[in-house]
Amino acid sequence: MLNVVIFGAPGSGKGTQSKKISEKFNLAHVSTGELCRRAIHNNTAEGVIAKSYIDKGELVPDDTIIDILDSFLEKLPVDKGIIFDGFPRTVAQAEALIQIMKEHDTKVSVLLNLEVEREELLNRLLKRAETENRSDDNMETINKRLEVYEKQTLPVIEFYRKKRLYKPIKGIGDVNDIFDRISDILDELK
Ligand code: AMP
Description:
Helix content is about 55%, strand content about 10%.
């Protein structure tokens, strides 16, 4: 079964590419950012916790995000592969994901890292701030999210590199060209 982690800084295009990947390869798309926004919208206990971190540009604590993810995965069909978008974001989450996948009798097939330089990320995030109404797309929070990414999330790359599951992808240029690069890798794995 194909289980993909799509990885990259905020604004690297994870959401856009995840949608295309889930359609072509028939995978369930799981975005922990979307799950948080839904929990906030529904005013659940986890949503209230998540909001206090998201609005500051910080990561939601590992145990909360893992609980949110777990309850979503329980409802998914067991025979479908998954694309994880925005998870794992810490090494502790990467370790938890091994366990979660074990419980579902499967494992992560690959981590695709969308590589985009910081200046381009800032441009994209500021543009998105104008079109999408996300509470965390403002200059102060964007800078904080990029800093959090570098400090807390980047070490996840090394975790997957050691397991030989790491694939870097050039994340700039035409959306379809980026998707072609991803497809070439996933075609070989499926
Ligand atoms: P995203 O939509 O992936 O950019 O996520 C938006 C925000 O949700 C992030 O800035 C975090 O505050 C929170 N979030 C999403 N996924 C995670 C995760 N795996 N761990 C911790 N916080 C997360």
